[in-house]
Amino acid sequence: MLGPELQILIVTVLFLGLLTAGMAVPFAIAVPAVIYLLMQGGFTALSGLGLMSWGSMNTFALTAVPLFMFMADVLSVSGLSNRIYNGLAKLVAPLPGGLLQTNIAGCAIFASVSGSSIATAASIGGVALPQLTGRSYNRALAAGSLAAGGTLGILIPPSFPMIIYGTFTETSVPKLFIAGVIPGLIMTLLFMIYIGIHALIVPGVAPREQGARNVRELLRALADIAPFVVLIAGTLGGLYFGVVTTTEAAVIGCFLSILLGFMFGDLTLKKLIEAMHSTVNFTGNILFLIFAAYVFSYAISFAGIGEKLTEFIVGMKLTTLQFYLVLFCLFTVLGCLIESLGMIVITVPLLFPILGRYGIDPILFGVVLVIYIELGQISPPIGINLFVIQSIWDGKLSEVVYGTIPFHLIMFVVLAMVIFWPELALWLPAHMSGK
Length: 435
Prior knowledge:
- By secondary structure, the protein is mainly alpha-helical.
- The chain contains 21 helices and no strands.
- The chain has helices at residues 4-20, 25-41, 49-57, 64-77, 80-92, 99-111, 117-134, 139-150, 160-169, 173-179, 181-201, 215-240, 246-264, 269-303, 305-315, 320-335, 340-355, 362-377, 384-391, 397-420, 423-430.
């Protein structure tokens, strides 16, 4: 019989080895978990997997994942992202930084109806990059602003990581959504302020753009944004006032996105079916990842690792700030090895039981966790947003990475603000109706 320390070492090495070898993340999580169960209790330890599988996946909150993804896919295929970008260009492009400001504002608005950083970066980036490269904008800053702006897709609600975090921890998903609003808006504002200051100091990075020239163009620009305002109000408004659940808000969002796609976009039946196919592929991947994570969670619970880890960390007598610094180091390393949702499903089962010892609110931790994940999405070598932007333009990956560096620093500032002033995340959830 192998000792517990040796068992954990073997499983950890196996997990890292499978990741390094390029195995899909769900398999890289599930295989070591099953092997660990066999080490702990033989085949009898596997007897609870069936009940665990049904109990964990039969969760109503998870139905929001494919619905929000379908809403984002409909918006992407219907061309409404073109409409919002062109409308915002008339309103915010006259600011220092020109269309770079439109990148951030467009990502923020698209984020509020998509829930996905990949969808946000790809949709806005696909519209913006041809215009940016054709107008002599600084290439690194143009690509970096889109990669960083895309991360707003998981902080500004709706957010897939928040749905998964809420499912794992039985934390209110509507409250998690609303908790991300103020930090998301602060991050958006700081991104835009940085671009403006950079453009004033180094005018060559962004040519000056002309905004709406008359009232007619101004009204046209507002009309281009109006469908998204309706969509945001229909989904997030109902959540904030306690009128609908997360899943009901997602259903409303799907209905409105289809309606607006036919009315204001170029949505067709063929494109609608294309969006369905994309949603099914995405949902299959995500739910399989969640299932693998539950197997992992069951394994560590069976072995009592959570309690042992809690005792170990509490025994270190860390302050709350030191605990956050340890998490920062942990997620920095994980961000170089694994994609964002993988980080959630691996770490949350281990870390969540510890939060109470440090007096950390689960909703606050959800927001902090998402910001950590945002940093991972633009950090090489795994940062998914870097590859999304690089795949839709003719530049080098190194240019995208270089362009995101200032936005990394801004994210650190927002992270520090949320940690030192928790009310930035907790004030709105505390004032929600129907709480």
